[in-house]
Amino acid sequence: MNRRFFIKSGSIALASVSAQLSTPSFLERLVLAEGSQRTSLPRKILVTIFQRGAVDGLNMVIPYGESNYYQLRPSIAIARPSSGDVETAIDLDGFFGLHPSMRSFKTFWESKRLAIIHAAGSPDSTRSHFDAQDYMESGTPGIKSTAAGFLNRHLQISKGARDSVFRAVALSQAMPRILQGPAPAVALSKLADFTIRAGNSSAVQGGFEAIYERSVNDVLAGTGKETFEAVNYLKRANPSQHRPGNGAQYPRSPLGNSMLQIAQLIKSDVGLEIAFTDTGGWDTHVNQGNSRGQLANRLQDFANSISAFLTDLGDRMEDVLIVTMSEFGRTVRENGNRGTDHGHANAMFVIGGGVRGGRVYGDWPGLRTEQLYEGRDLALTTDFRTVLSEVARRHLGSTTLTTLFPGYNVIESRFRGVLG
Amino acid sequence: MRKLIPNCRLRRPRSSGALLIITALLTPVFSAVNAQKSPAILSDEQQILHVLNRLGFGARPGDVDRVKKLGISSYIDQQLNPQDIPDALAEEKVKELPTVSMSTAQLYEKYPQPGVLIRQLEKLGKLPPGLIQAQKMPGMESTNSSKRSEAPEPEANAMENENYRRAVREYYAEQGLQLPQKIIGELQASRILRAVYSERQLNEVMVDFWTNHFNVFAGKGVERWLLTSYDRDTIRRHAMGKFADLLLATAKSPAMLFYLDNFQSVSPNAQLPRSGNRQQMRVGVFAKREMTSNRQSQEPPQRMRRGINENYARELMELHTLGVDGGYTQKDVQEVARCFTGWTIFAPRGAAVAANRRLAGFAKESAGTFFFNARLHDDGEKVVLGNKVPAGGGFKDGLIVLDILARHQSTANFIARKLVRHFVSDSPPETLVKSVADTFSKSDGDIREALRTIFFSTEFNSPNAYRAKVKRPFELAISAVRSLGGDTNGGPQFHRWIARMGEPLYGFQTPNGYSDTAETWVNTGGLLERLNFGLALANNRIPGTRIDLHRLVESTSTNVRENGGVEPALKLVLGGDVSSGTRQTLMDQIRKPESSAADSVLDTKASRAEVLAKVVGLILGSPEFQRQ
Questions:
Q1: CA A111 to CA A357: how far, in whole Å?
Q2: Across the strands, what pairs with A115?
Q3: Among B8, B582, B622, whose Cβ lies nearest the Cβ of A219?
Q4: Burial code of A168-207, b = ≥16 C-beta within 10 A, e = fewer?
Q5: Regarding beta strands A97-98 and A61-62, do their DSSP bridges make them parallel or antiparallel, or are they unpaired?
Q6: In terms of CA atoms, which chain B residue is nearest residue A175?
Q7: Residues 127..186 of A with a Cβ closer than 8 Å to B: which?
């Protein structure tokens, strides 16, 4: 709302000094440029992946050095690393290991492009999927009335390197909470859908363009013009021409498809800065499996989709960062159905060129009963907003972290140092 | 590339001195346009279109003449008394949707969640062989993505899922059960059908308005079983009545109690019993079991957690009544929350989950209904907005709060402004807001009287209000079908377009509901889907929805060969009221040959049909039709 006020008063100032301006849209552009931060940083791209349903972080990044892990999970624990046995945890640092189905991450761990923050997440104690996702996406745990998602707030308070409709894209059917808000963003499940769908589409689009062009008096005319520009732009850029590079093989799954399309948008240089996608299937209350089974399949899809993306983009990953999150973790103790229930802290991945990877960050709270949150869950030692603040500050160059996470006291000295 | 907000601001310069300055400074193009935009007075035809657009979801073929014959004020009077308007056609259509008339308990029984059902059968030792195998399979829950609850996970372990799904399908078919996804689909269909077919148009507009005002999100937990009753027994029943009644109905509705967490708001002093006589325990034991027995349900156990939940209390004041600046404090929020402790839901997740033997029979009929649990209630004294709520009031505490809020001047102002914004303009004229608020207060919150004040005001009937509102996706989709006299079954294929345009019914996550001002939803992606919707409709590409352009246009016109039906189509869709620019463009379009077989575009019936569909698609996508 402050932004609106600003634009309004900004307009007065501008209009009075430049009486010769001829089109409203030109005026707007100038006003907005004035109102935004100017950064000369190279264009950085952030890809956020949400694991909806609460992934079991303790079987994704396994604290195999904890004996209690094995006591509390008699049937679903992942065995300690044992060389030559592909059913055991992949050793990371002598204490933590990756789930064996995430083998594709190993390369990136070794090349130090992949970092893990364990015992991280939202400090709110809710165990409702809905509320916890809402809190994470709005960036305000415990407060439901926050209007915009935090990625949208980022868009509002920072200026894009380019003025592009595709600055922020969600690969999803509906606009996710994390990107909802006044700043423009596009939600689409398939790039190919972003077009006028008519038998003879160029003729029909021409008709629409002519109609909107002549409706100069209408607020919709501006949106119309931008829409057609965007459609034409994407058509010219033709993202689908970019086949996966470097032999990358994306899983043929929803997440694989989303990652492929994000890579295509990046390669076609349409001004993408903020990408978002989500992936489900993590709510493993029953028969979650151990080295194989339900969770193993999901983790394999997750790791392989991301790994394909990293392979595909190759050197371009220098400017790209992936962050993953999930609304909460799962109980340390397995339940009566060989599954896990809703818990608290979880593990996040930060992956990309600028990452100081090959390390598990965060303070490990331990798994002895008295160390557990409410006697049952992994305790939280890193607020997800600390991780995201560091990403915003050091990757995206944001200088207004208090606006990004209202009510959260961001202290740079507490950054985990994932990004140097 | 798109800067919507400043555009919006520039749209109606009269609202801002600052913008008048800009307007004056801008080139002749802009001011000329303004001159063109404001006719001194609405023509009779425009006035009728205006009323049909605002009091309803747009004109069907013949509606303008009907209203002309009846007289505008008689039409408004009629619409203000929906109970007197026969509505057989709409009712008949809705009757084909079985869930719409079912109780919540029936829905739980007939449309169970597969995972819940299987575990229940397992517990009873009645799991059929086909499902025993399936029970070992993953993917039993559809709760993994609460945002995309309509899309089950078709993922990596597709084979296993497929086996599981087949087993479930077979068992459901044998037992005469249905999957729960159907419920929301039918509810959405009922809203679409009524909006398209009902003669009680204003009533449907108000149902839409209040559904949005008292927003509930279908993707949260068990809402999909609760919303049918919410629409039928809460919103619809009171949409044109007294605001106080509507408010009470929402406060007691399981959908709202669940959505804003009040059903689990418990006094910190509440005594959840472990022993005692049975009669006394009944409710308490039940509540306890509810909290501990639902591992498999969508919202997992907040295990035995006690304490006040302020969520409902806050939104009740901020969004439902007083407005954010309506004069309440955080202390008031806490006190109101205390008053509502114990307002909860009986067997909120259905009999299958709740029923631990003793209560099974009872829950079978009453699952998912309101009940006051005195044991959870905070019975101390409270002070709400300066009013003392005496100790020991029990259930009455909540009633007292609702009464205070419903009669509060801030509520009158807040509701009046919202109504005027909805029916007149995105920037509501203050004079009208004031007189509507006065009517609201004087009539004891009579919604009908407030509406009457709006419809007979000069502001409503001013040229400034004509087509001043951009249609929301639901309004656009419905008005398009109506204008073409189309038929629809309101099914998921139709609703999907409303979702694509950005506003699925019951799909808004946060309690504030969809915004009623254009700047929030007019954006590039949204506009593109609007254009595509018009094309899909005009070309009959939406399964379950049909329009007959030939019958509508060609049969009424003798000169289609020459003008491709542009004039009759414009007459139908926009009452003929369209800018010369749009009209000219349409004429240009039909003269452009689609294919290389040039000249004779309009010579054959097939080619005429193609051109006509294109013309209608373009009109539905025009800026004029985006407005009402």
A1: 8
A2: A350
A3: B8
A4: bbbbbbbbbbbbbbbbbbbbbbebeebbbbbeeeebbbbb
A5: antiparallel
A6: B502
A7: 127-130, 133-134, 144-145, 147, 163-165, 172-177, 182, 184, 186
- How far apart CA A56 and CA A293 sit, in angstroms, is 13
CB B314 within 8 A of CB B333: yes
Beta strands in A239-375 (DSSP E): 274-279, 320-326, 346-352, 360-361
**CA pair distance A38, B270, nearest whole angstrom:** 56
pTM listed for this prediction: 0.80
B564 in Cβ contact with B611 (< 8 Å):
yes
**A191: closest CA among A220, A161, A171, A208?**
A171
- ipTM, two decimals, is 0.78
What string of DSSP letters covers A109-156? Answer: HHTT-EEEEEEEE-------HHHHHHHHHHT-TT-S---S-HHHHHHH
Q: In sequence order, what DSSP letters do the residues of B231-290 get, joined into one string? A: IIIIIHHHTTSBHHHHHHHHHH-HHHHHHTSGGG---TT----SSS-HHHHHHHHHHHHH
pLDDT reading at A144 higher than 50: yes
Residues of chain B numbered 66-95 and touching chain A (CB < 8 Å):
none
Question: Rounded to a whole number, what is the distance in Å from the CA of A367 to chain B's nearest CA?
Answer: 20
pLDDT of residue B554: 65
DSSP, res B60: P
Burial (0-12, 13-18, 19+ Cβ within 10 Å), B59: buried
Q: Looking at the complex, does the CB of residue B403 fall below 8 Å from at least one CB of chain A?
A: no
Q: Say if CB B137 and CB B160 are below 8 A apart.
A: yes
B497 and B536 in contact (C-beta within 8 Å)?
A: yes
In the predicted structure, residue B234 carries a pLDDT above the cut 90:
yes
Among the partner residues B1, B16, B522, nearest to A219 by beta-carbon distance: B522
Tell me which residue in A11, A219, A278 faces B22 most closely, judged by beta carbons: A11
The minimal CB distance from A130 to the residues B146, B301, B528 is found for B146
In this complex, which of A208, A211, A223 lies closest to B524 when CB atoms are compared? A223
- Residues B11-45 as b or e (16 or more Cβ within 10 Å = b): bbbeebebbeebbebbeeebeebeeebeeeebeee
CB contact (8 A) between residue A173 and residue B499: yes
Tell me the residues of chain B between 21 and 60 that have a Cβ less than 8 Å away from chain A.
21-22, 25-27, 29-30, 33-34, 36-37
> Residue A19 is which amino acid?
A
CB contact, 8 Å: B539 with chain A?
yes
More confident residue, B17 or A93: A93
Contact between chains at B145 and A293 (C-beta distance less than 8 A): no
Is the minimum CB–CB distance between B532 and chain A shorter than 8 Å? yes
B163 touches chain A (CB under 8 A): no
The answer to whether the beta carbons of residues B376 and B343 sit under 8 Å apart is no
Distance separating the N- and C-terminal Cα atoms of chain B: 27
Decide if A28 and B7 are in contact by the 8 Å CB cutoff: yes
Confidence tier at B550 by pLDDT (50, 70, 90): confident
CB contact under 8 Å between B36 and A231, yes or no, is: no
Query: In chain B, pLDDT over 90 holds for what percent of residues?
Result: 57
Please write the tens of the pLDDT for every residue from B238-249: 999 999 999 999
Per the prediction, chain A carries an average pLDDT of 87
